[in-house]
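Batch manifest, entry 17 of 40.
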Amino acid sequence: MSDRCRPRKRHHFATPSLQSDMVDARDAAVGAIVAAAGGLAVGLAKLASSGWLASVPAFGMKGWQILSVGAFAVNVASVGIPGRVDGEMADEAKRAMAAQKAANADGKSETQEPAGIPRAHWSRGLVSPAGWAFAIWGPIFVGESAFAAMVGNPALTSSNPAAAAVFGVVAPYWAAACGLQALWCAAFRPWARRPRHFWLPGALLAAEAAALGGAHRAMVLVSGLKGYALPLRAYLCGHLPLAMHFGWITAAAVVSANSFAAVAAWPKQTRVSLAFKSTCLASAAAAYVSVTSGDPVPSFVVAWALAAVASDGGRSDAGDVGEEALRSLAGAAATAAKLLTAVALGLTAKN
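Output type: structure tokens
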């Protein structure tokens, strides 16, 4: 048989670029999380319009109480599952600090990397808070635990009708925020570190900030009505932690956007521009919410986050952004933090 008539073997080799563009399980996971977020929004909207929230389905609790407590339980359970990127950061930071201490003990180095997002971490962006900023999670978690305990009391409607009215309106927004945070816990993991997947955690944080913003707006509007002002205990257990959470997640969404820019390897000037613009946007949003609502808490919290960003300085081991740009970014964050603090103090004095 001649070579011309001999059947040819066909080889199926995908090129590297084609392999990187093929849909895999990670793409399916992104699609599933996006679908879950959409389903959460639609489901809560239908639930809110069905009348179930005002009914008393079980345990002597109204539907909105069961929804609020259940959403918080889902939130706590999802946050407790290890393996997220922030856990990876914490492990890297511990190893870096241990190595630094050993080097200092040997006299080879006298510098120390600040706690927070490690400078060599693959997700580190130009807007990164110092480690001490994350201490705010303690008061937020304690406050929201007290909130869940308070709204889970079947006698709340009769013992504190003002709080019941306020938090009954807040419940769908609160449940949405808890559900989105649970989905963020699933997305903020090393499996999603490629740029085509890593946009998802930031998008979920932005959606969570919007949900918490809705909760904050509902609290302000209803508690401002005659006869519905929150007693001090309800304010400390409900309004305060939710307003703090709103401010912190708003800042976290900015950090995540700049982290995505780093992972996607955007040009230096684009990343610097994004850092400036997102810092200004977060500051303006916090000031607007505080001034229009009369609530200083969101401005206080975003000021706290921006002060931590200024303290961190945005430096990384990549070193592709000049010192002058980093100093300018840190200065802008520090200035914004001072202005927001002034706004918050003014509102506190006024109120």
